[in-house]
Predict the structure of Cinnamoyl-CoA reductase 1-like isoform X1.
Amino acid sequence: MSTTSHIRKNGDAIPVAASHDLRRQTVCVTGAGGFIGSWLVKLLLLKGYNVRGTVRNIEDMKNLHLKGLEGAEERLILYKADVLDYESICLAFDGCDGIFHVASPVTNDPEKVKVAVAGTMNAVNAAAKSGVRRFVFTSSIGAVHMNPNRSSDAVLDENCWSDLEYCKKTKHWYCYGKMLAELVAMDIAKKRELDLVVVVPPLTVGPMLQPILNASCFRVFTYMRGTKKAYRNAVMALVDVKDVAQAHIHVYEVDPNASGRYLCIATVVHRSKFVQMLSEMFSKYPITNECEDKVNPRVKPYKFSNKRLQELGLEYTPIKKSLYETVESLQEKGHLPPAHMLLVSPRIPSSL
């Protein structure tokens, strides 16, 4: 039997519901209302965990979907918390066995670098203070592959790091911020003897649980609407959002000795292959087949290793299926109208 709980501090935390029967560990997911965060909350609930989720505004429409997840009524508590507010994070983490720190600004705004870094500092310190069993940090391929000195024949793996100066010089502020945040997390965790494990996903696609269009699905959206008139002569690493969420759970519970980084990459394809897959499945949409580079040879996909997660039992979703479910989700959420109703918007820069 479950009863409503009222865990509050100055009105900052309110529950969806709580149960007297704590069947499993209690874990907290920061950024619970986001693309990856929502799927992580969903899968944790399905596995029987008692889940706390931090959001900046509990009553915001973009977070209401969390209350409808299976198991939410009994085992999900939402906390109003901001990663820049250390006390609010401490409140959410207090009494937790594990933390999944997903929250981070997904933007190339240089002003948000300090948010990513300071928020991570607060989360790691709060987790250490709470004495959690394991802290799982969501990094990004932006912290791994942005290095002009890496050979095209080299295998991208957990030992690879981006070049911070190169990220600054080329104004890849998101990559710069994620790498700094990961380095800060590792440094603090080592000093405070916190068990830290890092999941490193690339561009993440798949069905959205949240109503708001997120940055990675927006990329698919721009191609579907025909607002991209040409694609770059470049490659892209991809993975399904469900696999990323499952990867977080795998590194948390499968191996007690799990440590370090885990690359969560399903495939690396040239953008021509990316648009080809979309065109094959949705031929009525105005998807470009033009490359903006008419001169240079096509860039070859780089080699990568995802064996660390495979050794933990993670199986990757075929990316064409993931893209199909992405578009299907865009339609169901009302972001993408049927092809015959589509009005082509102004051109989107091909760099996106």
